[in-house]
């Protein structure tokens, strides 16, 4: 498997990005920024999140990412475009990302690896994020944003933060890992939090990034 380019936000950029999140008056944009920065979730995991993934443990919120979830993210009629007679554009169910996986036999999203099916705890110290997730659960049910929609909102936040770069969900995933390292999380704890199947990709966060 090809190693993904390691692109965390530098500390001053991460701080500016977080300020932009807090100042945003667009709830779904604020949720997207908060959630990806403070959980390290992948874009596809966020796209397919359901209310059933969320539960409370005392005052903390817990996100339980399953191994598989039915994908109902697509809209409009499906067409013919590949050997499975599935549409190659963004319309139809399931979403384009799911239906164009050649190995997939059903209309489900699947976690990237077995290790990616994991539990993410959100501490009560992130009360704003907990409130935004509760708002999403009540108002948006299980359809948050498309893959491209996530990147759109992240780049709006990047512009508002004055960053001269694009920001993706994976940039925030890496930034979250760096933040955990600075909070003295071990490599094995980071591996579990981010859903890696080995220690190797988690070890990149121990590098001095200052």
Automatic annotation (TrEMBL):
GO terms for molecular function: DNA binding. Keywords: DNA recombination. Gene3D superfamilies: Intergrase catalytic core. One of its GO terms (biological process) is DNA integration. Residues 24-207 form the Tyr recombinase domain. The keyword NAD does not apply. It comes from the Archaea. Pfam families: Phage_integrase. This is Tyrosine-type recombinase/integrase. It comes from Halorubrum distributum.
